[in-house]
Amino acid sequence: METFLKKTFPWYGWLLGSWFPVQYRKAFTILFLTVLLYAGGGVVVPGFLTLEQILLTLKLAAFIALFGLCQMIVIVAGGGGLDLSVGYTATLTAVLTASIMDGRNAYLGIALLVALVLGLLVGFANGVLTSYLKLPPLVVTLAMADILQGIVNAYVAGKAITGRPSPVLVTLAAKLTGVFPNILFVLIPVAVLAILVFERTKWGQVLFGVGANERTAYLCGIDVKKVRFLTFVASGVLASLIGLLLLGNMGIAFKDMGSNYVMPSIAAVVVGGVPLAGGGGSYFGVILGSIFLQALTNLLTALGLGDAGKWLGFGIILFAMLSVYAGNRRSR
């Protein structure tokens, strides 16, 4: 992708090499493609470039980026890690805590406790089965998603889901400060913390080291199984907390409310430059990948292509990005 852009735009290579560190070059490529997407969309769809539309894109992309953090934590550590259970972890959290809070701030603390416990249980199970019993993460987390979906269906049992989020959650996830969505003020500190952890702490170095070369990490005294176990625990807890934000944004809980974020979150990680083999990437890239995918979704919707166009677009982009990364790996 970078090679194509360098040939198409001669100044692109100079800008990329002069101003951006190596770990952020793929992220800048996605930023550049997003600008091109908006420029093209603004020509073919009137109103696509308005501030209102851009802020809506950022709001919706924030949730993809948060789920993308779940995926990145697991993927970076290698071992074929993916977490397909994040969607239904968030859904079950929302369904359970909606009844607890029922529109009151007084029970927000209990809801947070329930979310943490649920996320820990799901992450613990995923981590044990994948890291210690050596079962494939794809199969384990898909099975976990099915189990959680079954629990949601049994809990609902054909009746309407009662309860509402607390006003605090609604303010954080759905309201605006001026023209800016408040969810951005949640994402920004999360992003800063995640980037610092990944790039400036020993834990981040361990994650990248395990993902880059499991054998070398083991010989250096790193407990590879424990590291990968903890990534699934972190993913489960984070997904459960995101479920609270989803509830605040939607205003009600419903079945499948989190499942539609699983595929986009994986796509955002891949598009953002995180190799599925682990050992590299940046969360900044994941955020930009989320924005790009949401902008593409909005454009396809505006063109009348709907969900079919969205999923087709996601699939084509995933194939394209994976092909590019595979080609880059072979050329080294």
TrEMBL record:
Keywords annotated in UniProt: Cell inner membrane, Cell membrane, Membrane, Transmembrane, Transmembrane helix, Transport
Gene Ontology terms: cellular component: plasma membrane
Membrane topology qualifier: Multi-pass membrane protein
Major subcellular site: membrane
Gene Ontology MF term list: transmembrane transporter activity
Segments crossing the lipid bilayer: 27-49, 56-78, 108-129, 135-156, 168-198, 229-254, 266-296, 308-327
Keyword Transport found: yes
Keyword Isomerase annotated: no
Compartments where found: Cell membrane
Primary role: Part of the ABC transporter complex LsrABCD involved in autoinducer 2 (AI-2) import. Probably responsible for the translocation of the substrate across the membrane.
Subunit structure: The complex is composed of two ATP-binding proteins (LsrA), two transmembrane proteins (LsrC and LsrD) and a solute-binding protein (LsrB).
PANTHER family to which the protein is assigned, alphabetical: ABC TRANSPORTER PERMEASE PROTEIN YPHD-RELATED-RELATED, AUTOINDUCER 2 IMPORT SYSTEM PERMEASE PROTEIN LSRD
Protein name as catalogued: Autoinducer 2 import system permease protein LsrD
Source organism: Candidatus Caldatribacterium californiense
